[in-house]
Structure formats: structure tokens, C-alpha cells
Amino acid sequence: MKSTLPLLSLSLLLLTAAVTAQMPGFVSLDCGGTGNFTDELGLKWTPDDQLKYGQSTHISVANETRKQYQTLRSFPADNRKYCYTLKVMSRTRYLIRATFLYGNFDKSNVYPKFDISLGATHWATIVISDANTIEVQELIFLALDPTVSVCLSNAPTGQPFISTLELRQFNGSVYMTQYENQYYLSLSARINFGADSEAPVRYPDDPFDRIWESDSLKKANYLVDVAAGTEKVSTQMPIDIGNSERPPQKVMQTAVVGRSGSLTYRLNLDGFPGSGWAFTYFAEIEDLGPTDRRKFRLVLPDMPDVSKPVVNIEENAHGKYRLYEPGYVNISLPFVLSFRFGKTSDSSMGPLLNAMEINKYLKKTDGSADVSIVSSVIALYPSADWAQEGGDPCLPVPWSWLQCSSDPQPKIIKIKLSAKNLTGGIPLDLTRFTGLAELWLDGNSLTGSIPDFSGCTDLKIIHLENNQLTGELPSSLVKLPNLRELYVQNNKLSGKVPSDLLNKNIVLNYTGNIDLHKGAGRGGHDKIIIGSSIGAAVLLIATIASCLLMYKGKKYNKQDQFERTGPAPSLGSSLGGVAKEAAHCFTLSEIEDATKKFQRKVGSGGFGAVYHGTLKDGREIAVKVLNSNSYQGKREFTNEVTLLSRIHHRNLVQFLGYCQEEGKSMLVYEFMHNGTLKEHLHGRQSINWIKRLEIAEDAAKGIEYLHTGCTPSIIHRDLKTTNILLDKNMRAKVSDFGLSKFAVEGASHVSSIVRGTVGYLDPEYYICQQLTEKSDVYSFGVILLELISGHDAISNESFGSDCRNIVQWAKLHIESGDIAGIIDTSLDGECDLQSMWKIAEKALLCVQPHGNARPSMPEVLKDIQDAISMEKEADKLRRGNSDEISRNSGQSLSLNMELGESQHYVAMDESIAQPTAR
User: Fold this and answer.
1) Are residues 141 and 286 in the same domain?
2) Does the pLDDT of residue 717 top 50, yes or no?
3) Are the C-beta atoms of residues 505 and 524 closer than 8 Å to each other?
4) Is residue 97's pLDDT more than 50?
């Protein structure tokens, strides 16, 4: 689909009653498909081929034979949203699931990233990191309206696309909470313990078609740290599941048992830390002896209140083969959840676990303030393309013909319906938009009179020209206090222009209305009135001033052009005018005075020696002196002066100038008192984990600026711990830009001879000699691993006999769940494992072999900042300040239920939208 098509959103109203061979309220959309079919599970699939918009593409993925994953629908990567609208039953709960299988549909191997929203609420950011892996997002919601919209938008890379969209209706009170009017439940984990294969359990075994993942599924950091003595058990006996959340029989007929007295697991919870809904499902499926007892507790680290209740499945469920479902409807959980079920001292049997389900509370976003009004407007044009855009008119992005305010509940501030073939009268509902500042209805066939807009007190600009409007110019226009421009030319208006309107300081054009005139005569109809005489004078003065400034600007630009292309006396033509214009040229005598003739050497490298100095104004400087016989150094010198003369950021070492005299080339920087990050990690007194995170944040901000804040973007090409320097306050700045290169605008990479440092070098860049920003991301991933471990990037001793590289060594530990095996021993346990896991997993993504699978620097920076928040709050808890956290942040949440007491609720604090990890 070309992005120029007029309809910018998709609307599909599906009647759920049409599906009769399965559970009522089931909708299964095969996006990009062409025909109805029934899959191997018995689910009926419907294509979205009714849609005229979007691009339908066939894909082929190895080992994927399901028909619904042979096609997808993609949309333009623009600033609009594309929506599916589904019919639902109000006051009914539903599960909605969207899946995404990239399959390199666009033949670009650029992994897409985009947002998905449910109505006005941001649901998730879809980040594709593998062309052959299905990304799944699932929500449980209470329908409050007759329709619900799922929208795709905001694609910074690739194109938005979707493979399937599924709607599943629940019965009765399943998943009912007292928070459901304000919150959705976003699935984080739904696990079938004791499963006999890696295949999930779903429809028809689960009549609601929930997907219960097998605990045998092998993936990184998923259900690791399994206790010794864990054994799978199963039964063929039916399980009485009652009227609860009704986990399926097949799930409840399997379990794991801790024969040694414990069941332990660790898993990542997508979307957390935050507040969630967490339940466990138990059924006694073993035949116990007359004297056997199975009693155990749930133990969560740092959450003693959760560990008190004792579970006795048979007693709690009032018999064998009956469901017992204890849980919490409002519990604060971390990103990495470690949990243990341990038997009590008076129990003869180890704990048993059948299933577990965890959902995160997702705060619903209030819709736009003007939803009902705009709905009334578009209802007048049911067949118009522009009236079909789905979802909320303003959120998460506005419709193509609207602009909205930035308020939490935004108002519509601009309506632009120029040349949309509008007929009939001007809709009276347009006069109800209290925040409207601009109204564009020009170039249509509107008839009738101009309505009273006096209720729209913010109106500044009104375009009604080139229509067929009749009647007089209403005097109510005078009542608009902010009106600045009014265009009504080329209509069929008549009568007199209100004198008060003529006296307002506005631009008024009413030409082309042969029966409209001012005053008592008819001669004024062919004039453009520009406010009062005062307004005209002001405008004339402004115009003259503008012309003078433009003239002066042209003269200045010519001179500037000459200076930019003229020779730079000390640097020669190799640097051109850029350096001359921006970089200060120090004399050799100034440098010698500042350094006391190069008395104090503070470092050295491939470039040459570095000396400390002090300028006459008291500023401390570092002077890099080029090795006179280094051709590479001369090229790096030229590159660094050229580049640093045009970039400035608080997290880049400040470049003060250069010196080229008597055959010497020198670069002058601000002095960084605390040396390099490498010295602190591998030599000086160790720095704690929170300071390491803050250093990572500073460095990431500097690199993010190079990648996204510079035009063209800049690739550093030699990121390493020796090129991250620390000032007197231990704030980090990125340095050494001798190898840096400008990215080529419009190109996916820069062909380049490989430069860099062993251990930090992007393997894809090394092999293909194609440099991208993701090469810097790889190097930064290595730095993150150094921050975690305290080890060098390359070592003959640190990583064992079979490994010299930190990436290989760390990957083995992290993917097996052994984070403790790589943590720097000097941290001495003073770090939060959640924040450590957050950084470790992001580091692994950064050092993926292929650049397309690596995150961008803004994504890396966000996760570092999240980890800092986790660590700071964990540190307060370690110091015994948990009461202060609750008092000051308002984010700590009390547990709502004792284990097993699922009928008791407490009010949810509004701060749940920004939960605190514990």
C-alpha cells in the first residue's frame, strides 16, 4: 500500500455471533489471509481481506506450517495509526491476543519496532529480534463499550505489521477484579508444570483458548535454578476445577513434586517490576498414605509477609483431585522472580505445583476529552474515508486530520478537513469543541449559514473559503477573543460585514462574495481587510523589518560561505573551514606555559602522550601530543578536530582546541580528574554497583547523542573502558574520536576498513567491513559486561582454559541462569539481583552476532535508567528505609490477600501505574 492513500486506519467490525462451531465470542483474524479455514485445533479463522488498505504479504518460515502464519499485513512506517475495530459485548471480559511473525516479509532484514495500543492505552512496544520467532502479546480486559480497537503506530525502524488478532470471550466472573474499570491485565506468565512435552496446552483442552506454556520449554532465563529432587507426576483422573479461573483439566492433571523438600524456580516477568495479579493452581494428584501429609509454604526473597501461609492442598481443596487456587490480586513483583515452595517441618511429603499464572496491571489511559463530539461529527459521513480511522481520535497518536493538546486527557485543537468533499451544512457539533484553535473546512461544497462559534473561545484561525455558504457573517464571530484570521472568500454570503469585526485586529478575507459588503456601500467586497489601521501598520513594519533581516542574512551568508571554504592557516586544507570556524587554535607557547613545558605526563596511548596543564584562566586541561612519526595518528588528529569542532554534549569530553606548530600536532581537552573507567574497574579502589550504573548511564547518553542527536549521525568505532573518562564528581564522559566516522545519510551502513580494539570489535563489522551504529552498541555491550564482572574484555586467566573472551564467558553463565557466577566479587553482595539481571540481559542483546538483533542506544539507555531505579530502591530497603520509600514515593503496595483468602480485597492506590520493585 502506498502511504498516500487517503484512509489512514483500518476498521473491521466483526459480529462474534457469526461463529457458532466454537465458544461464543471467539474471533480469529488471519491478517493478510485470503479465505476462511479451520485449523488443526478446530478454531475457525477469518481473513481480513475485506480491508482495502495495508499490504498483504506471503512469508515462509522454516518449520512453521500453520496457515495463519503464512501471511501477514503490514502498514506504512509513518506517524499515523492503523486500527482494527472489533465488536464486543459491554460488561463482558475478554482475552485479546495479537501475534507477530516477521519472516523478513519486506526483504530488508531490518527488524521492525512499533507500538500496539488498545484504544487510547499503550499496550506494548513490539520489538522484533528474530525473523523466525513469533512475538505474542495478550491482554485480559472488561469491555465497557460496544467496540474495542487495536491499533499499530510509531515505527522508528521497519514497518508495523501483524500476523493474527484473536478475541476470546470469558464466562461469568472469570478474572474479575475490583480494579478492572481502571486496569487491564497484561499476561506475563502462564505455566503448565509437569508437562510431558514442550507443546503448549490451549483450545480445545482450554475452552477459553488460553495458552499454557510447558515448563519443559527451553529458552534463556525461563524457569531455571530448578531444585534437585524435582520430579514430574501426572494422573488420568478428572480434576474438579469448580467455578474459579478454571484452568483446564489437562493442565491440572500434571504437576512437579519436590522429593527433596523444595521446589525452586526463577523466571523473567515481562513488563515488571510492577503490581500484578498472581495465582497458583494446586490439585492433589498423588495417592498419599494414611499418615502422609503434604504441607508447604511459598517463599519469596525479601517478601516475608508472603511466606507465612501454609498450604495443605487436600485439606484446602476439601479432597483429592480438586482445585485449590490461592493467590494475590494485588502484589508487587520484580522483573526477575525467584520463588520457592518448601515443605514444613511436620510434613512428610515435598511440595507440589500444577500451574501458575501472573498478569501485570496495565493502567488504562483516559480517552480524549472530545470523543463523543467527534463521534457525532464522523457519524454524518459514514462512507467517507477520513471518517473511518479507528481508535481514540488523539491517543496514542491523533487521526490524520486532527491535532490534539498534550493534556493527560487531550482536547482537539485543530480540525483540518480541507477538500474532503463535504456537503450539507457545517456540522453544529463543531461548535462544541471548547479547545479548538484552528478550523479548516475550505475547498468543500458546504451550504447554509455559518453557525455560532462563540463557545469555542480558543479559536484563532477559521478557514471557510471556497464553499457555497449563504447568509450573513454572524456577529457572534466578534465574541471570539483570540480570533486572528478569518477566511470566507468565494462563498455566497450576503449583507454587511459587522463593523466590530472590521475593527478587530485580524486578517479578514471576504472577497468573492458579491452580495457581502462593508458599511452602507457595495464597493468594499473586493478588498482584503487586514485588521484595523493599527494592525495594518504593525504588519507593514514587521514586513519591512523581515525584508531587511533577510537582506542582511544573505550578505552574511555569502561572507560565511567564503570563510567556510577558505584555507585554515594552521591545519591546512585537510580540515577546511569547519575547524577554523569552531575550534580554538592555541599557540605552542600557550601550551608550553600551561603544561610547564610538558612536565606532568598523565597517560599515553596509540596517539601519543597526554600531559596535564592549567590555562591562565585557571581551567585544567589535558594535552594530547601526536607521535611525530605516526601517519595513523595524523589522520586521527585531523578526524578528531574536524568532528569535535561541531559536537557538544555534557557526556562527551569537552574539546577546547588544537595546536599545530613546529611539526607538532596537539589536541586540548578539559582535564578529567578521575582517569579512565578501566582504571577503576581493574586497578584502583573498586566502585559500587550504583555508581557503575550511573557511569553506564552517562556514557550511554553520550553515545545516544552521537547516534541520534547529530546530523549525520556519528559512529564512535572505538568504545572501550579506556575511552570512558571520569571527572572530579565521577561523572562519565566519552572520549577519543580519532577513529569515529559520519554515517552516510540514507545508507544502512558505511563501508570501512576495520578499526577498533580487540575484545570490543563488532564481529559483523570485522567480517563484512560494513560499519553501523550497531557496531558501537556491540562495544557498549562488552563494557556493560565489564561493569558487571570487573573483568577485562580479553583475558588469558579470568575465563577458564577454553575461553579468552568476556562475551563467550558471560553468555554461558547468563543463559544458564547463573548470574552470580559473573558478578564482580568486590561488590560483596551489595547489589540488587533484579537490576543486575536487567543489565546482564541487555548486555547479551547488545552483543548479538547480527546488528539487526541488537537494540538501539536509546533502548539501552532506558533499561540502564530502569536498573538504576531498581537499585536505588533496593538500596533503601537494604538500609532499612522501606517506610521512607512508602511515605515519599507513594509507590509501595501492600499485599491484598493472605494466601488462600481469595475473597478479600483492598483499594488499589493510583500509584500502581508506577510500581516499585521489591
Assistant:
1) no
2) yes
3) no
4) yes
Report for 429-438, 681-690, 762-771: range of highest mean pLDDT:
429-438
Are 666 and 701 in a shared domain? Answer: no
User: Is residue 492 assigned to a domain?
Assistant: no
pLDDT level of residue 632 (50, 70, 90 thresholds): low
Residue 563 burial by CB count (10 A; 0-12/13-18/19+): exposed, middle or buried?
exposed
Q: How far is CA 442 from the centre of its chain?
A: 38
**In this predicted structure, what is the pLDDT of residue 473?**
95
Kindly state whether residue 888 falls inside one of the protein's structural domains: no
Per the residue annotation, which of 209, 215, 370, 718 is the catalytic one? 718
Q: Say whether both 138 and 175 belong to one domain.
A: yes
C-alpha count within 13 angstroms, C-beta hemisphere, residue 204: 10
d(Cα 833, Cα 887) in Å, to the nearest integer? 24
Integer Cα distance of 508 and 528 in angstroms:
6
User: Quick one: 659 and 793 in the same domain?
Assistant: no
- Identify the CATH number of the domain in which residue 280 sits: 2.60.120
Grid cell in block for residue 810: 558471560
694's grid cell: 550511573
Domain match, 191 and 56 both: no
Same domain, 50 and 106: yes
Where in the sequence is the domain holding 646, given as residue range(s)? Answer: 576-671
- Does residue 553 carry a pLDDT above 60? no
In this structure, the answer to whether residues 49 and 111 fall within a common structural domain is yes
Full-model pTM = 0.66
Whether residue 718 lies in the annotated active site = yes
Decide which of 543 and 287 is more confident.
Answer: 287
- Cα separation of 183 and 274, whole Å? 13
Query: Mean per-residue pLDDT for 27-48?
Result: 95
| 560 has a pLDDT exceeding 90 | no
